[in-house]
Design a protein that fits this description.
About 55% of the residues lie in helices and about 15% in strands. With about 550 residues, the protein is α+β, with helices and mostly antiparallel strands. The strands form 3 sheets. The chain has a 6-stranded antiparallel beta sheet. Strands 1-10-5-8 form a 4-stranded antiparallel beta sheet, with no helix packed on it. α3 packs antiparallel against α4 and α5 packs parallel to α8. The longest helix has about 40 residues. It starts with a helix and ends with a helix.
Length: about 550
């Protein structure tokens, strides 16, 4: 295998590995998705009526599970009339999600489940919770669910209420097809982002690109964790109603940190705009650190919730700044990413406005924006645009690096023999040897090249040189030596010491014996205490080679 084939194979190996990993991950996710899709379940959406008890004691009735945004302290009563189809489900479990409410579930007037009362009494919020309440077999009558609202404007509907068999109820967060698809895509994107980072590191497209890939991976992982918390799919991994929301909150704080770091790493000439980005990054990191300290060390404080509104505000400011950056410097990102990012940021800021000022925004808009099936899809669009943009730039870097290696290979490789050429030795090897204490050089001259050219033609002479080059390559293989065509019929073997060189030269002679080709060899070693230059060592090796060639001539004359 020559130098060109080795470079080409080593360059394409990371691409092949990454492609296979992506394909395997996608196929695996598809199989899992089809398996989850077949789980028996019964939607209770059309069986729900809602009553809201306002702070003044008045009651508002809704003949569905859609209602106005409730206020903190208001009570919501959901009445579910159990349909006849429920009798076909073995060991039925009623599943639904809740956010920041104290819950009481009754079956035909009897309390069967309570949640959040103790936390509420201690001043803690209940956070995002998955409720799974077992019902008796062949249930009939009604189920009533009472929510005591703990936060303003955080519940606009009571959706995705499902009756499932107990053995499958742990898969409730991914029981609907949209949740399955969004979860699988998020996982695939997280895997792909890691592969891109590894890809950049392995092929060494550049330090900046590799660091960007690292921050991109962290961002995609944080995005995946946030999406799993937001949609409730985190509960597939854990039913801890404290751990799941806190992981989601942590991801919310970490997202701008990693994304801003990704942007700053790629920014080389943004001027004052880069300084603004650095200020934002410091603020993001500081806010996350303070929230974490308060959360874990201050008693009776949910630090991530205390500073969440401030985090929203900073996120909006950062989003506006980045939109300005994208429009001002269109060369900083690709077109696909620019479009996807702008759409995503505008929708994200609209959702933040819904969370912060729910009473101002029309109810129809708030319900559309906060639908859990919509927001993950929008985030996936943005993440796909981000990965596509970065992946295309990484691949361009890969192609550019490959082209540089190809040109370097052409410049530093002897086309006839496949060995490194004189330019490679002068530009690279000589500099390395000048910094080394010990090394050895064998100077090799092909015997009878001129006579072969004169008698049989230059094609025969080229075959002779190819034989020598092939023998030198075989001699250097697995010996840590390097072979060079130094010029014309002259070659060099460079090794770490005399023993190393002797082994390579002997293996070269063994290979030459099979082709009936002979060479003259002279060896010289550079001593640790010597002040000789590389040229001096080559000159001594050349002199030793010439002396050996004279001996060859004398032996041939004596034989004649």
């Amino acid at each position: 295998m020559n130098e060109e084939d080795r470079i080409k194979n080593s360059s394409y190996m990371p691409v092949r590995i990454m492609t296979w990993i992506v394909l395997i991950a996608i196929i695996f996710c598809i199989f899992i998705g089809f398996g989850i899709k077949g789980i028996p379940r019964l939607s209770m959406e059309d069986c729900i009526k809602t009553d809201i008890t306002a702070l003044d004691g008045s009651v508002e009735h809704y003949d569905s599970n859609h209602f106005r945004l409730p206020k903190k302290g208001e009570s919501l009563l959901f009445t579910l009339t159990i349909p006849e189809e429920a009798s076909s489900i073995d060991s039925p479990v009623l599943c639904f999600f809740n956010y920041n409410s104290v819950i009481t579930v009754k079956y035909n007037g009897e309390i069967i489940y309570k949640h959040g009362q103790e936390k509420n009494a201690k001043g803690y919020t209940t956070g995002h919770t998955m409720i799974r309440t077992a019902l008796p077999n062949h249930p009939t009558g009604t189920v009533t669910i009472t929510f005591l609202q703990q936060e303003d404007n955080t519940l606009a509907d009571f959706t995705n209420v499902i009756l499932m068999p107990a053995q499958y109820s742990w898969l409730y967060p991914v029981a609907d097809f949209s949740s399955q698809i969004s979860l699988l895509l998020f996982v695939v994107f997280a895997v792909v982002s890691f592969e891109i980072a590894i890809f950049n590191t392995v092929i060494n497209t550049g330090k900046t690109s590799a660091i960007q890939g690292f921050f991109l991976s962290l961002f995609c992982v944080a995005m995946t964790i946030w999406a799993m918390g937001y949609t409730g799919t985190m509960f597939v991994l854990t039913n801890d109603d404290t751990l799941s929301p806190y992981i989601e909150y942590m991801a919310t704080y970490l997202l701008p940190i990693w994304f801003n770091a990704y942007l700053l790493t790629g920014a080389s000439s943004y001027g004052w705009r880069k300084k603004v980005g650095i200020v934002l990054e410091v603020f993001y990191v500081g806010l996350f650190s303070i929230a974490t300290i308060v959360h874990f060390f201050a008693p009776h404080h949910d630090g991530y919730l205390v500073f969440l509104q401030m985090d929203y505000i900073v996120l909006m400011l950062g989003g506006l700044f980045f939109i300005f950056l994208v429009f001002h410097d269109r060369t900083s990102v690709g077109k696909v990413f620019r479009i996807g990012m702008i759409i995503m940021l505008l929708l994200a800021m609209l959702e933040v406005l819904v969370a912060m000022m729910g009473k101002i925004i029309p109810e129809a808009v708030s319900k559309t924006i906060t639908t859990q099936a919509v927001t993950p899809a929008l985030v996936l669009v943005f993440q796909a645009a981000l990965l596509a943009d970065y992946g295309s730039r990484a691949y361009r870097s890969f192609l550019e690096k490959e082209e540089v290696e190809r040109l370097e290979m052409l410049a530093y490789t002897d086309i006839l023999t496949g060995l490194r050429n004189r330019a490679s030795f002068d530009d690279k090897e000589a500099a390395l040897l000048s910094k080394s204490n010990n090394y050895a050089i064998a100077f090799i001259d092909a015997d009878g090249l001129k006579a072969t050219n004169d008698r049989f033609g230059h094609d025969a002479g080229d075959r002779l040189l190819k034989n020598v080059g092939s023998a030198i390559w075989k001699g250097c293989k697995d010996t840590h030596c390097k072979g060079y065509r130094y010029g014309g019929d002259e070659f060099l073997i460079v090794g770490v010491d005399e023993e190393n060189i002797s082994s390579a030269v002997q293996r070269m002679h063994d290979a030459l014996a099979e082709t009936n080709t002979s060479v003259s060899v002279g060896t010289a070693c550079h001593d640790r205490a010597s002040d000789e230059t590389v040229s001096d060592v080559i000159h001594r090796a050349d002199s030793a080679m010439y002396a050996e060639k004279q001996k060859h001539h004398k032996r041939r004359e004596d034989t004649v």
